[in-house]
Amino acid sequence: MHIAILEDEKSLADDLASLLKKNGHEVSIFGDGLHLVDTLPAELYDMFILDWNVPSMDGFEVLKHIRTELGFKTPVIFLTSNDNEADIVNALSSGADDYSVKPVRPKELMARINALVRRTYGAPKKNNFPETIVGYTFSNAERSVEFFDSKVTLTDKEFLLAHYFFSNLDRPLSRTHIMMRIWGQSEEGLSRTLDVHVAWIRNKLNIGAQSEHVRLVAIHGYGYRLMQVPNETV
Questions:
Q1: How far apart are CA 8 and CA 31, in angstroms?
Q2: Which of these three, 91, 121, 151, is where a domain ends?
Q3: Which end of the chain is more exposed for a tag (fewer CB within 10 A), N or C?
Q4: Which parts of the sequence belong to the OmpR/PhoB-type domain (predicted)?
Q5: Residues spanned by the domain of 53
């Protein structure tokens, strides 16, 4: 999961990021609310952990923006320096899903995160293959994709990249986000590798600019988006 942390106390933010990364999550840290909001809705986050008292735009304002302006149902845990009942009730009434009192207790926080993930996204599937998305059937065992009377076998990275695009149909994905998910790092040297793999799967899966069903398009200066062609029933 990709978790956004809004926390201006650097040592606490670093501790939270280390804890989450050890538990298999990708983390983005923001020291002020406006910086976080500026990345929305283009960037994808699976959960927000928001501190109440941060510069520029506080956690309450960010929560209102997420829920009211964007209409996101993404789970939110807020951090509070005390267990004042009025503050907690105000946060939960405004759309937060849970809270954690500082200083954060790591085991308790992870238990809250895991419980919230289960409530929001359900238990992880042990085997969701073969999986069909808009007419493309992915077979994990064979590393193959069947579509419209065609079948192709992909390399491991091609398969992972293609499945990731299809799993996020119609959502813009940043280059950094894609490289972290597929290669586990986002170094500049991987940028060309990403573009080459995109070219390969465009050709092999017929999802280029002339496709009548779905097209993998570049977003200038940002990343890629796999989109369904309007008015097509796939």
A1: 4
A2: 121
A3: C
A4: 124-228
A5: 2-121
Q: How many domains does the chain have?
A: 2
pLDDT in tens, 125-181: 555 678 999 999 999 989 999 999 899 999 999 999 999 999 888 888 888 878 878
SS (H, E, C) 104-123: CCHHHHHHHHHHHHHHHHCC
pLDDT tens profile 168-212: 888 888 888 788 788 877 677 788 899 999 999 999 999 998 898
Please tell me whether residues 209 and 100 are part of one structural domain: no
pTM: 0.63
DSSP helix, strand, coil percent of the chain (3-state; round to 5): 40, 25, 40
Output the CA torsion sign for 141, 144, 146, 147: positive
3-state SS record for 180-210? HHHHCCCCCCHHHHHHHHHHHHHHHHCCCCC
